[in-house]
Structure formats: C-alpha cells, structure tokens
Specification:
This protein has 274 residues and is of the alpha/beta class. The chain is built from 6 helices and 12 strands. 29% of the residues lie in helices and 25% in strands. The strands form 2 sheets. The chain has a 7-stranded mixed β-sheet with strand order 3-2-1-4-7-8-9, with helices on both faces. Strands 6-5-10-12-11 form a 5-stranded antiparallel β-sheet. Helix 1 packs parallel to helix 4 and helix 2 crosses helix 6.
C-alpha cells in the first residue's frame, strides 16, 4: 500500500496561537517538534500496517517545518515551494492508495481554531463553484483526481466534525476542542500520538473501500483578497477576471488547475522599482 501524508501545523495538538505558527514566534520551535512527532507516528503506524511507500508533503507556510532526521529512513518528504499542487504536491507521481491529512484546520468562512484558507495573510475567502472552500475542499479533490481517497483527518473538533460530514468514510482524530479562534482544550502530546497511530491504522484498513473525491470541470473559482492591489494586477491577464474590488474569478479545467492558480496568487511577487 502507498500512503500520501499532507501535514499542516495549525491542527497539531497544543498549537493554539499564531505565534506558534510563525518562524519568528517564540512557540514555533516547540510546535515544529510536536508536528514532527505526529508525522513520525503516522509514518511508523503506516509502516507497521505494511505500507510500501510513504510520501509526506510538509505543507505549512514555508513548508520546511518537519525535522526530517526524525522520520523513518524509507519516508520521502516534499519540502519548500512554490509547488503547483500545493499541499498534495507529489500525489501525481504515483498511484497512492490513501491520503492522510494531519494537523488541518477550518477555512476562513468557518468557526474554528486558527481558521483561514491557504494564505491567511492574503486571502479572505475562496469559493469553488460558488461554495466557500477550506483546504480540504481544494486538496482532497486534487488527490482524488490522481486516484487517492481521503482516509484520515486530524485537527481540532471543528475540522473533524466538518470532514466527517462532507467525506463519507473518513476517519477523524480530534486532538483539541476549540474555545475560540485562539484557544482550545488540548489532549496531551502523548495522547495525540496514540490517537493518530490508531487513526492511521483504521484509515488504511478502510482505504480499499473508499472512493476518491473528484470535482468535474470546468470549475469556477473565486478568491477574495484582503486588499485591492492583487485584483488590479491579476485582472490584466486574460485568464483572470475582476468580479469586485477585492475579488478575482477564473475558470480551471480541473482542481489541479485551481491549485496552480492559488499557488501563483500566493507566491508571485513584483520586484519593486529601484
């Protein structure tokens, strides 16, 4: 069995503030240790179940958060970026049997701990075919496009409840219960690792019976930015349309195309005049 793991940081047990998610934050190093432990535990559980290949996409911010020295020798890691398929880049290079999403969170349009969608600093909301989307709505269908079904979601209670409602058969592991946007009742790191290990095994047991989630094209996508300038610049290109002072719309053939545009929006920076 081949396993693909997409790992984010905001949904890791113990992480409750933006300070823990930023490279210059005083809690960032500890949060990365917790994230590394959770990913390592997932990998070890997958290996014990018989996984023949495991690829991990480090998917938070700069995408260089996991201490790869702590992972099993056989694991491959996607690091850095930009990368066209974002949080599941590498999924197209093989036929994976299951997608495991660790440390996820709710979207900007939903209540939840540290909620945002893809680029919290730049995007106010993303919509796919008119419906507000979180990161699962975007990247689960990208994985599905390449044949991988969603098996596991870990994070706070909000994203786990939402995932169970939207994705039939998914296993969830709620590692913390939100109190507000920056507060939660968290299980201990040790308890979180046990929940993740059990969740991985349960997801791999169910994987042969899960169906990949896909979204048929053409796909209409919209991004609400937090300021006006990106819309003015992007709308100069024929493929992007200004649909409001802070909204860009575009059409993509598939969800991989949506991902490529979102990566472009997040990563392209104009060089200032000297």
């Amino acid at each position: 069995m081949k396993v693909f793991i997409s790992a984010d940081l905001e949904g890791v047990a113990g992480v409750v503030s933006w300070d823990q998610t930023l490279r210059d934050g005083h809690g960032y190093a500890q949060a990365c240790r917790w994230m590394t432990d959770e990913v390592r535990t997932a990998c070890e559980a997958a290996v014990s179940f018989g996984a023949k290949r495991i690829v991990v996409a480090d998917s938070h911010l700069t995408r260089e958060n996991i201490d790869i020295d702590q992972l099993p020798q056989s694991v491959e890691v996607i690091r850095g970026g930009p990368r066209p398929l974002g949080m599941v880049h590498g999924i197209a290079q093989d036929q994976f049997d299951v997608l495991l999403c660790l440390g996820f969170h709710t979207g900007a349009h939903e209540q939840g701990l540290l909620n945002h969608t893809c680029n919290g600093a730049g995007f106010q909301e993303i919509r796919i075919n008119g419906a507000p989307a979180d990161e699962l709505d975007i990247y689960v269908p990208v994985a599905g496009q390449f044949g991988a079904p969603l098996g596991l979601v870990t994070g706070d209670d909000a994203i786990c409840t939402s995932a169970a409602r939207r994705f039939p058969g998914v296993i969830t592991a709620p590692l913390k219960t939100q109190i507000g946007r920056m507060g939660a009742r968290c299980v201990s790191p040790a308890a979180a690792l046990e929940m993740i290990g059990d969740g991985v095994v349960a997801a791999m047991e169910k994987a042969p019976f899960l169906k990949p989630i896909t979204v048929d094209g053409p796909i209409d996508a919209e991004v609400d930015f937090k300021w006006h300038h990106p819309v003015e610049v992007l709308s100069m290109l024929d493929q992007f349309e200004a649909r409001g002072a802070q909204t860009i719309g575009f059409t993509a053939d598939d969800m991989a195309g949506v991902s490529r545009s979102l990566e472009f929006f997040s990563n392209y920076k104009l060089v200032p005049y000297p």
